[in-house]
């Protein structure tokens, strides 16, 4: 009887530890800026953008040579005049297929480790086809993709829950657990 009890404890303790771990992160932001941050506050920290455009009521500001996870990117931030920062996109500068694979793979692993499993999670392999991963979280939406065949660079897009709702309609966030 004692052997069975000890054996059961050895099985249950690791199982209890697995189920007691904290959930993955659900807070989403762009380059450390919370949703709703004013355009002036972002410019103050990032410096003067190289370009500005207004489309569909959102002001887009572009910065070049922005470092993200050890890679160089163009960063576009989208602002609502009354609600501040609502989203943004990074377009990564890569020159070879190896650069593309390394960039996409590194970003995907970092996002997976931070935000957990996703319904759209595709391991990259050495093929010229689009690769996509997305996370629909209570704090916003994240979309990572590349399509080397069509010349689309590694692209990482973030949107606030408000912007996601405008683009996709009502969505139910999905969160992962460690």
Short account of what is shown:
The chain is an alpha+beta fold and 178 residues long.
Describe the structure.
With 178 residues, the protein is an alpha+beta fold. The protein has one domain (25-168): Pathogenesis-related Protein p14a (3-Layer(aba) Sandwich). Helices cover 30% and strands 34% of the residues. The chain has helices at residues 2-20, 39-46, 97-115, 161-168; strands spanning 51-55, 58-68, 71-80, 84-92, 120-121, 131-137, 140-147, 152-159. Strands 1-2-3-4-8-7-6-5 form an eight-stranded antiparallel sheet. β3 (71-80) and β4 form a beta hairpin. The model is unreliable at 5-20 and 121-129 (pLDDT under 50).
Query: How much helix is in the residues?
Result: 25-40%
Poorly predicted runs: 5-20, 121-129
Distance between the termini: 34 Å
Tell me about the largest β-sheet. 8 strands, antiparallel
User: What is the CATH domain class?
Assistant: Alpha Beta
**What value does the Rg take, in angstroms?**
20 Å
CATH architecture: 3-Layer(aba) Sandwich
Dominant shape: globular
The CATH superfamily is known as CAP
Instruction: Assign the CATH topology.
Output: Pathogenesis-related Protein p14a
Count of the domains: 1
DSSP strand content: 25-35%
Please work out how many helical segments DSSP would assign.
4
Structural class label: alpha+beta
User: Strands across the major sheet, in which order?
Assistant: 1-2-3-4-8-7-6-5
Look at the structure and give the mean pLDDT: 82
